[in-house]
Specification:
Largest sheet: 6 strands, antiparallel, barrel
Number of strands: 16
CATH architecture of one domain: Beta Barrel
CATH class of one domain: Mainly Beta
Oligomer: single chain
Structural class: alpha+beta
């Protein structure tokens, strides 16, 4: 009985629900969504709008951040490429600068202005020092290259460096004028003097025995034609301070143009042309004049003739 009653009630209920559904659909169509379904839809949208807004607030920055990270990664790759290109450009620039420096040295070497066209020149590299205490330095040219003891040495600008002390077949030792025992006969303007080294300083002492006029700071000091160790006219340095004659003589200091410790390339001059004369021990003297022989004139008076010291 019970099961039969349930079957009897199920059919009418189903029919009733179908009818109600059809009616609701009919009303919704006729009212163009303004019916119950439309109200439900509108209510749903109203409820979901804040949720959608909140989701957009959270999702949009995340999306922007992801785009930014992608852009950062791309920029990083571009920066790495640019850094590599910059490093290559810097390396190329350094190589060009090295070539230009080498070219400048060669141009200076081959444009030295030496009065005696017959003087031979031998370019040499400074390769070291005999020992830690020795103030001389070693060059990579020797007797097989025409370098012998006593020859003068200049730098690439034509400034006096010193003289060759001794030479082997492949190397030679150069002693700078700032430490040499011998003086150098020099010319300051029209006055002849003697330039000698001083202890504990690279500045040199200038003595003019028969000074006729003052000399000024900055005056150029060059080798004299009275010199037996150097050709005439080679620049050595400049006067440090003004000096005036006192009792007929003058003394001041000269700063050489060359710093021996900074030399990398030097030029050895084949002078004097006779290697035997060049190898003589310290031909310079520390005084610039010496008394000449005294002769008697017809009236009994004596006269002297000054000669430049060798």
């Amino acid at each position: 009985m019970v099961s039969r009653d349930r079957r009897d009630r199920a059919l009418p209920t189903l029919v009733t629900l179908l009818v109600i559904g059809v009616l609701l659909m009919t009303f919704d169509v006729r009212l163009e969504g303004g019916g119950i379904v439309g109200s439900l839809r509108s209510g749903t949208q109203t409820l979901l709008a804040p949720v959608q807004k909140a989701a957009a607030t959270v999702v949009n920055p995340v999306g922007d951040m992801i785009d930014s990270l992608s852009n950062v990664a791309s920029l990083r790759e571009e920066n790495q490429i640019l850094e590599a290109e910059l490093a290559a450009a810097i390396a190329a620039l350094v190589a060009v600068q090295d070539d230009l420096a080498r070219l400048d040295v060669l141009e200076q070497l081959y444009s030295l202005d030496i009065d005696e066209a017959s003087i031979g020149r031998t370019e040499a590299n400074v390769i070291g020092r005999p020992d830690a205490l020795d103030q001389g330095f070693i060059i990579d040219k020797g007797t097989r290259d025409g370098v012998v003891a006593g020859q003068p040495v200049i730098d690439i600008n034509g400034y006096v460096v010193g003289r060759v002390k001794d030479a082997s077949s492949a190397t030679a030792t150069v002693v700078p004028i700032t430490v040499s025992r011998a003086g150098v006969a020099v010319l300051v303007g029209a006055q002849i003097g003697s330039l000698t080294p001083q202890p504990l300083t690279s500045d040199m002492r200038l003595d003019i025995i028969e000074a006729r006029e003052p000399i000024l700071g900055g005056d150029r000091v060059v080798t004299s034609s009275a010199s037996l160790a150097y050709p005439a006219g080679l620049a050595i340095g400049e006067v440090i301070a003004d000096a005036a004659p006192q009792n007929g003589s003058l003394t001041t200091e000269v700063r050489p143009f060359v710093e021996p410790d900074a030399l990398r390339v030097v030029v050895v001059l084949a002078w004097p042309p006779d290697p035997i004369a060049a190898s003589g021990d310290d031909p310079e003297v520390t005084s610039t004049t010496e008394p000449a022989p005294t002769s008697t004139t017809g009236n009994g008076a004596s006269s002297t003739t000054d000669e430049a010291a060798p």
